[in-house]
Structure formats: structure tokens, C-alpha cells
Automatic annotation (TrEMBL):
The lineage of its organism: Bacteria, Bacillati, Actinomycetota, Actinomycetes, Geodermatophilales. Residues 1-26 are annotated as: Disordered. It comes from Blastococcus colisei. This is PhiRv1 phage protein.
């Protein structure tokens, strides 16, 4: 079973037994989104040409929260 299927099954089970707004269900939904994003990024990088160091740094910066007021650039 893939990680997405496992995460989706966890969301379904928690939703059914603890409710859609339970903290555990909400965390499971976040986990599912993260797993889907990870798989998407992996598929995209597998078909893309190699990234330069600058491109890699720019993409990595998207995962770093802003340290001062305002949105990350």
C-alpha cells in the first residue's frame, strides 16, 4: 500500500470514529497533504533536468518560514 493510500485510510478512519474536526483528524489531513506533496515533488524532479545550486536554494527557501513580518519572498 502506498504512503498516500495509508494516509488517506488514516484520515477516513479518524474522521469516522473521532469526527472531522478532531485534532487527530486534522493532523492526519495535514500528514496526507504532506505525503501527496512529497510524491508530487519526487515525480516532478525525476523527470526534470538537473537543478543548478541556485535553483535548489530558491526551491529550498520555499520551505523556510519567514523570519520577519510579512511573507517570504
Amino acid at each position: 500500500m502506498s504512503a498516500v493510500h495509508t494516509a488517506r485510510a488514516r484520515v477516513a478512519g479518524l474522521s469516522r470514529h473521532r469526527g472531522p474536526d478532531s485534532p487527530d483528524t486534522l493532523q492526519a489531513r495535514r500528514d496526507l497533504r504532506a505525503v501527496r506533496l512529497e510524491e508530487y515533488i519526487s515525480r516532478t524532479l525525476a523527470t526534470a533536468p538537473p537543478l543548478t545550486d541556485e535553483q535548489r536554494e530558491r526551491l529550498a527557501s520555499l520551505f523556510t518560514p519567514a523570519t520577519s513580518g510579512g511573507a517570504a519572498a
